[in-house]
Amino acid sequence: xxxxxxxxxxxxxxxxxxxxxxxxxxxxxxxxxxxxxxxxxxxxxxxxxxxxxxxxxxxxxxxxxxxxxxxxxxxxxxxxxxxxxxxxxxxxxxxxxxxxxxxxxxxxxxxxxxxxxxxxxxxxxxxxxxxxxxxxxxxxxxxxxxxxxxxxxxxxxxxxxxxxxxxxxxxxxxxxxxxxxxxxxxxxxxxxxxxxxxxxxxxxxxxxxxxxxxxxxxxxxxxxxxxxxxxxxxxxxxxxxxxxxxxxxxxxxxxxxxxxxxxxxxxxxxxxxxxxxxxxxxxxxxxxxxxxxxxxxxxxxxxxxxxxxxxxxxxxxxxxxxxxxxxxxxxxxxxxxxxxxxxxxxxxxxxxxxxxxxxxxxxxxxx
Length: 367
Prior knowledge:
Largest sheet: 2 strands, antiparallel
Helix content: 55-70%
Number of helices: 14
Distance between the termini: 39 Å
Shape: globular
Strand content: under 5%
Structural class: mainly alpha
Order of helices and strands: HHHHHEEHHHHHHHHH
Number of domains: 1
């Protein structure tokens, strides 16, 4: 909105043109989201405590978690609100990718909010049933993909451009797989799978927000390259029309995450809840779909992949053999049971995530 206003009055005040550049706007978007989130959290945390809107703790969880019972939850709502405000204030509102991301953030956020609300109202760790949660996420993903197909069908495809339904294979030059109509199923799997993987990772103070920031930062670089014809041509990389504007939205995600981390670092004053983890995972996956980095998302989101895989392996092993592979799943609880301090698990996950994000950016040249 501020961007649109500046464009309107820039003829009278040409010095304001400095704020219309993409590089300026992504920084301003991040700063805006940081300031909004850090301003909102203190009163919101006090209010949540006053009405006893605390996080229920699983009875079978690590014993160290029982002392966290009653910590305010649903802090993810502030992350999403700060992200949306930062993005809307500094983005080009005519960009169709912006509205795809806004829809995913809000729709996945609604599913997460309902799950959190039911947990709190029932004073139980059980919220929405798995079936209802999946129906909501699949429906929202399907609508987002249909909208993305609608807006991209009119794009002129560049010689190096990615057409809808095509999947880029990272680290292999000019290797693209066209899935055709099957892409809708693939895309839904990417969106729903990523959101649930991020949700499973959210189990320790500050654990999930670090990998979210590294993934969003890596995708910021990749989105800028795919949206810049000259840079993409220089790197022999694929292009996606208008994807450069996505960087403003992702910068807001990073900014809102920084503001949240201020209050979520150990010992946490507020938890994210499904209200934050589901939409954040959906946003990351949506950017990967728009920019053609669905497969590369497995690399940059390696921490999320391992967390989700540990649950799948644990459940599968127990059903087949009645034996558990890990002391507890997701895998961060396994390390807790092994005696690792919570802070050590979190920081090491951040370090691994940063390395994977750097490797993902390096894929621009490693082909």
